[in-house]
Amino acid sequence: MAESDAEQQPNTPRHVAIIMDGNGRWARARGLPRTIGHQRGAEAVRRTVEASLELGIGYLTLFGFSSENWKRPKTEVLDLMGLLRRYLKSEIAELHEKGVRFRVIGDRGRLDRDIVNLIEQAERLTGGNRDLVLTIALSYGGRDEIAGTARKLAQLVADGALQPEQISEQVFAEQLETADIPDPELLIRTSGEKRISNFMLWQCAYSEYVFMQTLWPDFGKDQMIEAIDEFCQRDRRFGAAVG
Questions:
Q1: What is the DSSP pairing of strand 208-211 with strand 186-189?
Q2: Catalytic residue among 11, 21, 79, 222, which?
Q3: What separation in angstroms does the CA of 139 have from each of 27, 65, 104?
Q4: Any binding-site annotation on 25?
Q5: In the annotation, is 131 catalytic?
Q6: What is the largest CA-CA distance in the chain?
Q7: pLDDT in tens, 89-132
Q8: Catalytic residue (choose from 11, 69, 112, 183)
Q9: Are 23 and 216 in contact (CB under 8 A)?
Q10: 67 is an annotated ligand-binding site residue
Q11: What's the predicted TM-score (pTM) here?
Q12: Contact status, residue 104 vs residue 123, Cβ threshold 8 Å
């Protein structure tokens, strides 16, 4: 699909979520340290944000670090946290200039305080931007988010602020960390793996999934267009019968 075609598609997804996978395999295939793969992955994030702005995507959510990733070797976790610090220090000003609102979902309690401070500063700085909402999932797990939402609702019931029979899908969704953004229409996973790895389990209930062989450090505008092209060919019926 040509670039102009992608931009003119009436059913281009409003919200794209991506599981960024393959940094380690990319590095291993080249005989390089995994750290280099993660660095190249950060470059792919920059390309993908630019592509999203050019293609008119309003919301981009990236799975940056899962709650399970804390189990990785300590040296790799430290490298990833260092890369995150550098990203927050070097990229936010440019994102702000481009009209990107930056936000983070996930358990911030496990992140170092200086990283949390950088996140909060970035969210304050870019909070009024509307060209693209970039959400990064850090220390995030879909099941943990659902369990946390259930706890919030249970507390509201215990406090008398909510009756059990009032809990609906809408009420539940309003307590999620993504309550202020639409659910993703398109979920992309790179590297050839075909699973969603505990990512946005509630929000992706009706998303279209596109699994790509491309390793994340090689991802860019061409791959985004390819995924959108496949999305645009899907018949999204949401459980309704074919006419």
A1: parallel
A2: 21
A3: 23, 5, 10
A4: yes
A5: no
A6: 60
A7: 999 999 999 999 999 999 999 999 999 999 999 999 999 999 99
A8: 69
A9: yes
A10: yes
A11: 0.92
A12: yes
